[in-house]
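The instructor's notes for this session suggest beginning with a concrete chain rather than abstract definitions. Hand out the sequence below and ask the class to guess, before any prediction is shown, which regions might be ordered.
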Amino acid sequence: MAEINSYRDLIAWQKSYSLGKNVYVLAGQLPEVERFGLIASLRRLSVLIASHIAQGYGRGNTTDYVYFLKQARGELYTLDTQLLFALDFKYIADPEYKRVKSELDESERVLAGLIRSLGG
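After discussion, reveal the predicted structure:
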């Protein structure tokens, strides 16, 4: 197992960061009318997930760490819901949705494992 010296070494952070970059780009492809709606919300969430994992890691105690990991998990679920809205409104195509949904599911799986490993 790899040694963890930084939040950047966490697989949960790496997967969430990659997901965040991909969603951020995808959000830019939505119609301009959604600039203050789904685009803004998707972009905000896309950076918050990895950011909360990093923030929790930096807190230095398990209770806070698990709290922020659970915040990140909640944001993953919110992101999932908003991506489904984008799909249903036909702002994104089914193949794009499935690609991002697969990445989101993997991020959630790894994050859930990290939370469990910390007793959360």
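Then share the key points. Residues 62-88 form the longest helix (27 residues). Helices lie at 11-27, 38-58, 62-88, 94-117.
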